[in-house]
TrEMBL record:
Taxonomic source organism: Mastigocoleus testarum BC008
Protein name stated in the entry: Cobalt-precorrin-6X reductase
Keyword Oxidoreductase annotated: yes
One GO biological process term: cobalamin biosynthetic process
Cited InterPro entries: Precorrin-6x_reduct
Keywords for the protein's UniProt record, in alphabetical order: Cobalamin biosynthesis, Oxidoreductase
Pfam families for the chain: CbiJ
PANTHER family: COBALT-PRECORRIN-6A REDUCTASE
The organism's place on the tree of life at top rank: Bacteria
Molecular-function GO term, any one: precorrin-6A reductase activity
Pathway in which this enzyme or protein is active: Cofactor biosynthesis; adenosylcobalamin biosynthesis
NCBIfam families in the cross-refs: precor6x_red (TIGR00715), PRK08057.1-2 (NF005968)
Length: 264
């Protein structure tokens, strides 16, 4: 039996966990940060919450005898990816990154690309009046000091009592979002600019398409640097990698035991 830890928090991680659990002799564990309380997990063993930095992750990997690590976290969750890379290297564990493709600029798009949320906030001050902020609860504080812009903030869960939030309205919703609804929302609130992370994927792309069709600017936050290492961009390729690896590990275990028997 080989034990696989999937670092999740994405739709792809959950899909991979479900499919990997059907592979013989592979036991799957899925770990999520627990950023939303309403998340639905569909695989057997799931752990929620941080490990306690690299030392905590190393301890978990050792205590739970993990053989294989797949980092299928959100493309903006760069810290946990770095921790995974360091811990896997330390323990000599095979590690794969599953990273969904990013959205690409298309004809008709009006993107202002920035390399951080902080720079997104800076660039807005001169470029926008009514902004649709689709960056997640953790990041809205970066816009809270701006007082000459009205913000429409879409969050999965309501802000916490002591969260600092920008001037404007909060709506609660979670993807996937439909193009027609996104267009209605942008028109209803007279939005002139959207702020989005380049998360990629289908679930939240409708706002980007809507912006293109309505001639609305997008301040697009480019992805952070992720650690080096083997990577795939879809669940099927991650499964293929896993199967190949499992077979290779299986063969080396058989070879190891046959050597012991021969030596007797
Ligand atoms: N994490 C998600 O599920 C998620 C989903 C959607 C979007 N994002 C976006 O990614 C950006 C950074 O988010 P973030 O703070 O969650 O990530 P992060 O900055 O990479 O991670 C911060 C800490 O959260 C814990 N953590 C993250 N992912 C984990 C996992 N799969 N299992 C266990 N612990 C995990 C780790 O704590 P320890 O150091 O204590 O181990 C990690 O050091 C934000 O822009 C956020 O909106 C994240």
């Amino acid at each position: 039996m080989k034990r696989l830890l999937i670092l999740g928090g994405t739709k792809e991680a959950s899909q991979l966990a479900i499919k990997a659990a059907t592979i013989s002799n592979v036991e799957v564990r899925l770990s999520v940060a627990g950023r939303t309380t309403q998340a639905r997990y569909q695989v057997g063993v799931t752990r929620v919450g941080g490990f306690g930095g690299v030392p905590g992750l190393i301890k978990y990997l050792q205590d739970d005898a993990i053989d294989i690590l797949i980092d299928a976290t959100h493309p903006f969750a760069a810290k946990i990816s770095l921790h995974a890379a360091v811990a896997a290297k330390e323990l000599d564990l095979p590690r794969l990154m599953l990273i969904r493709p990013e959205w690409l600029l298309q004809a008709g798009d009006n993107w202002l690309e920035v390399d951080s949320i902080i720079n997104a906030a800076k660039i807005l001050e001169e470029n926008a009046k009514r902004v649709f902020l689709a960056v997640g609860r953790q990041q809205i504080i970066h816009f809270a000091y701006i007082d000459n812009i009205w913000f429409l903030m879409r969050l999965i869960e309501p802000p916490k009592q002591d969260d600092l939030i920008p001037k404007g309205s909060v709506i609660l919703d979670r993807g996937p979002f439909k193009l027609i609804k996104e267009k209605e929302l942008l028109i209803e609130h007279q939005i002139d600019t959207i702020v989005s992370k380049n998360s990629g994927g289908d679930a939240t792309i409708a706002k980007i398409t809507a912006a293109r069709e309505l001639g609305i600017k997008v301040v697009m936050v480019n992805r952070p640097q992720l650690p080096l290492g083997e990577r795939v961009n879809n669940v099927e390729d991650a499964l293929r990698w896993l199967l190949l690896l499992k077979n290779a590990l299986w063969c080396s275990s058989l070879f190891f035991f046959s050597q012991i028997l021969l030596a007797r």
